[in-house]
Amino acid sequence: MKTSNELIHPNLNSSRRDFLRNASLLSGGLIIALSLPACHRAVPPSKMAGSSQPSAWLRIGTDNKITIIVDRSEMGQGVYTTLPMLIAEELELPLSAINIEAAPVGAHYVNDLAGGQLTGGSTSTRDAWEKLRIAGAQARMVLIEAASRRLGAPATTLWVKDGYIHGAGDARLTFGDVAELAATLPLPSPKEVVLKKTASFELIGKGAARLDSPSKIDGSAEFGIDVKLRGMKYAALIQSPVLGGTVQSVDSTEAVGMPGVVKILTVGQGSGVLVVATHYWQALKARDALKIVWSPGARLNVSNATIRAGLKAASSGNGLSARKDGDALAVLKSAPHTLSATYELPLLAHATLEPMNCTADVQASRCDVYVGTQVQQMAQEVAAHAAGMKPDQVRIHTTLLGGGFGRRLETDFIPAAVEGSKALGAPVKVIWTREDDMTHDTYRPPAYDQIVAGLAANGDIDAIHIKITSPSVTARLFPSPDSNEVDSFAVEAAANYLYDVPNIFVEYVQHEVGIDVGYWRSVSHALNCFVVESFMDELAHSRGVDPVEYRRQLLKKQPRALRVLNEAASRADWGKTEKGHFLGVSVMEGYGSYLAQVADISLDASGKMKIHRVVCVVDCGIKVNPKIVESQVFGGIVFGLSAALWGDIHIEGGEVKQANFDTYRVLRMSETPQIDVHLLDSTETPGGMGEPSTALVAPAVANALFAATRKRLRTLPFAGQIAIA
Amino acid sequence: MIKLNINGGELEADMSADTPLLWALRDHLGMTGTKFGCGKGLCGACTVHLDDQPVRSCSVSVGDAVGHKIRTIEGLSVDRSHPVQKAWLEIDVPQCGYCQSGQIMAATALLATNPSPTDADIDSAMSGNICRCGTYPRIRAAIHRAAELSREATAK
């Protein structure tokens, strides 16, 4: 019989991610780290904490163990497969030979499209597309040079294939054979590198299986919540029910004597109370026994009603220009006809399936933080602040993320673990319950949007004015010193309005609503695409023109958008709909990708809507891994449909009223329509695909509902306005 | 000490009888493949088998689990050779992967009683398991594929 009380994950205590420090121990041989600096732009000093950790994307051991260090967080979008593929393509390396490690904080790991070490904005592949292929080619060249010296053969007679360096006759070397020598040679400059032509790609464009799948089907994949360190304690955090409230008094008389409880402390400048125990269940039970008086703070009077009233009032004021073509306001004044509408969008939770959690191990002069984060540098800064240390004393170990969706761009779940570990002198893992997670999220911004079109006598659109009123995520997370700068992450899918209209004015009114809002998958695309694509449908119907045909006429100068639209219409049998079925369409450009969706719905005798099928056609340029792109399209549609049908966070008295999946409903398998994804061939540079499909499904369904009912739903979610089967 | 029959072996740990099986597995017994998602039996991330029936381990106390056969994702196979695991790899189902242990345990329980499920059977058996990444279309495909693999194995 096996007695198991405290099984320690063997590879965790010394942290398998702490690779370079322990590299020589792990391999049993000398490890050569090929450091491949990229041409990244300087990071602002405030965002780029110093780091003593060396930077590299590739490590080749003398034992030929090949490790690719991935500097983006794996949260389901596939970066632990697609980014290694880019290096492996140029290095002529089979994917089966690759080991993956998460990058530490480091200057080389900055995402040039984000200005920091950040995973988000559908930027990972776009940022890495040239950078990692160049890195792979540089490594190939230096390995060949080393092999040339070893074999005494000219480099031009050597080539790399299937993970070996080949030469005349039977000459064959592993990368490991020459790794030591290669590390002493200068890397060729990126300018000397000649990248493979598209036609020669062997990995890119093929649907290789995900490298992280095996660990995700046998329970061995390690998420933040799974981290286990020797001597680690578990902690439950309680935060003020009223958002932003602070502790006035804590009576822990009962809790302190409960089984397993080792410490109870106020953390986060009074924002919460942490109960640390030997096991998590003990911490949870003791947490329930605490008697806390909260000082509710300024948000006590915030409610959905005040939020909506505030947005509506702000929307009558002037905003900042996010796009101005011609003079839409002047044209609108004299337009023979106008069509206008107002759309409203609710607050939404992220609801990643893995609730927020963080494990910290604060020691005398260093702090190790194990966390599923999308922002390693910010995590490091926040942890350093909580530990009273300098950032370079903090090591961030990025685990797999059980969903990100933008929630893990925040760092609010980090300090309590650090403070707890510091107070206790032992590693502490803080796990939020689902209720903690849902009631203390940074919610997707609500919006109150007005849109008006000026129509010529013949019905042509002469002018369009899209006025978006919403709070700004960016103003809180990445504030700009320029108060006249529009938050570009509030106006996506409006500022890039695709249709051929001579006068376009996109206006943004920033109005803060009293609670923190956060980036949410596809960010403002999902908000604004609903408005713009619903309204394009309104315009088409107002003229009695078929909605696909109407868009076609206005997209003649947008060949990529026109192509996805036509393909989606064709694949959805637009115009040949089965009796009782109704179709709705939407088109969008986002993150450099073009998408069109068609939703196919029916209503039963009682008026209940059933969504039968969603067709999505995508032109995302070159598809690095089509199977992963397809999965992201599925994922975005399911995520967007959850929000469109049910997503609705209610605030009353500063408290969030939804706490778990019984009151915050998300899509389940039985509610998921058939999703047909078609990826078009394209030679364009890859576009981002982690997010955009999320945005198109709400307007596609709304437009299908209009076709079915002649009723225009301009507010999300649909639940409460129409019965859903 | 509470003694549990897990994956064919006896394991024991010092814990109170009201400890949910989920936390016993994860914290006391070091088996972290079973995930915490909601704590209320709403999401299915913590699905394990109790006497071959799928249950939400967040809602079963260890006291109630004593004397029953518990099977977790770690006990499905030693080499990812269970037909459901094979099908999951073939179809490349996981995205973030967090819900997948629970999905796989729900799927194996379904196939154990219904070797050739229809889409409707699958929807009915799997709708207690939430996937926020939207792997549902591939889960459906993988369950059909696992059913095929099992039938092929039986036919041999």
Walkthrough of the structure:
The complex is a heterodimer of chains A (725) and B (156). Chain A is α+β, with helices and mostly antiparallel strands and 725 residues long. Chain A folds into 3 domains: 19-216, Aldehyde Oxidoreductase, domain 4 (2-Layer Sandwich); 224-297 and 356-431, Aldehyde oxidase/xanthine dehydrogenase, molybdopterin binding domain (Aldehyde Oxidoreductase, domain 4), CATH 3.30.365.10; 305-347 and 443-709, Aldehyde Oxidoreductase, domain 4 (2-Layer Sandwich), CATH 3.30.365.10. A 7-stranded mixed β-sheet of chain A has the order 10-11-8-18-15-16-17. A 5-stranded mixed β-sheet of chain A has the order 13-21-20-19-14, with helices on both faces. Chain A has a 4-stranded mixed β-sheet with strand order 1-2-3-4, with helices on both faces. In chain A, helix 13 links the parallel strand 20 and strand 21. The radius of gyration of chain A is 27 Å and the shape is globular. The two termini of chain A are 51 Å apart. Chain B has 156 residues and is α+β, with helices and mostly antiparallel strands. Chain B folds into 2 domains: 2-75, Roll (Ubiquitin-like (UB roll)), CATH 3.10.20.30; 83-155, Orthogonal Bundle (DNA polymerase, domain 1). In chain B, 40% of the residues lie in helices and 13% in strands. Chain B has helices at residues 21-28, 62-65, 83-91, 100-113, 119-126, 136-155, and strands at residues 2-6, 9-13, 47-50, 53-56, 69-71. In chain B, strands 2-1-5-3-4 form a 5-stranded mixed β-sheet, with helices on both faces. In chain B, a hairpin with a 2-residue loop joins strand 3 (47-50) and strand 4 (53-56). In chain B, helix 3 (83-91) crosses helix 6. The longest helix of chain B is centred in the last third of the chain and has 20 residues, at 136-155. Chain B is globular and about 45 Å long. The mean pLDDT of chain B is 97. Classes of the chains: A alpha+beta (725), B alpha+beta (156). The interface between A and B is large, with 71 and 67 residues.
